[in-house]
Amino acid sequence: MIGHWSDHLPPGSAPPWLLRSRAVQAEEVLVLSYTADLRFFERVCLPEARAVGARVTVVHDVAADLVPAEDLHHVGVHYTDVPVRCRSDGEFHPKLLIAIAADRALVAIGSGNATASGWHHNGELWTTLAADVADWPATFHDLAGWLRALPDHLYIDDFGRERMEAAAAALSRHPAQTEGPRLVHNLDVPIAHQLPSSTGAVSRLTVASPFLDEKAVALRHVTEHFSPRRRRSR
């Protein structure tokens, strides 16, 4: 995390804890997920976001919808549910929380779906970036560009597109004051082709993943790219 006020946020926390901190006092909350348990979201996360008056949007893969509409009580009133599908017939798989106020923002990118398992019980990874106007990172502008490009790759309704544009506009409303970490995505170029050069300096490579493709092609590509002296997979 960056920014003098980010010390008030719990480091490495999952989205419910970050929302509960209320440090951002968000006006926009955008959640992107593959699987979404909206009953869990309504019970655990929505009250925290609504407590600060945020407009809340959850975007998830329609094929991974877990909850029948009749079991939900707040959708369409207190938050917007946006089921989507990739035009490529692939799966919509980002795991992202964005909470934005007028003069500060928090972004958490990780591995956990918006479910009790993904946001509470599983061993998941989250990278959190928080900043205010004085140290607004270029990363927020890069993320805004990604959000603006993303709907063209999806089957998504107009209102869902508008909510993503609102988040993008809020992320890019202030000029960048710092570089921030590099944002990598696969809308245009595979992530495997964007790996940094190793220049023979990698002594050990550790890969942690719950899934591998059938022939471990991605793992082999990463291993060959970095050519570590030691390697370990879990």
Could you report the average pLDDT, rounded to the nearest whole number?
86
Main sheet record: 7 strands, mixed
CATH structural class of the largest domain: Alpha Beta
CATH architecture of the largest domain: 2-Layer Sandwich
Strand sequence of the main sheet, in spatial order? 6-5-4-1-2-3-7
Describe the structure.
This protein has 234 residues and is α/β, with parallel strands linked by helices. The chain has two domains: 4-171, Endonuclease Chain A (Endonuclease, Chain A, 2-Layer Sandwich), CATH 3.30.870; 195-233, no CATH class. The protein has six helices and nine strands; from the N terminus they run αβαββββαβαβαβαβ. A seven-stranded mixed β-sheet has the order 6-5-4-1-2-3-7, with helices on both faces. A two-stranded parallel sheet has the order 8-9. Strand 1 (28-33), helix 2 and strand 2 (55-61) form a beta-alpha-beta unit. Helix 4 (138-149) runs antiparallel to helix 5 (158-171). The longest helix is centred in the first third of the chain and has 14 residues, at 38-51. It is globular, with a radius of gyration of 18 Å. It starts with 14 loop residues before the first helix and ends with a strand. The relative contact order is 0.15. Residues 1-5 have low confidence and may be disordered.
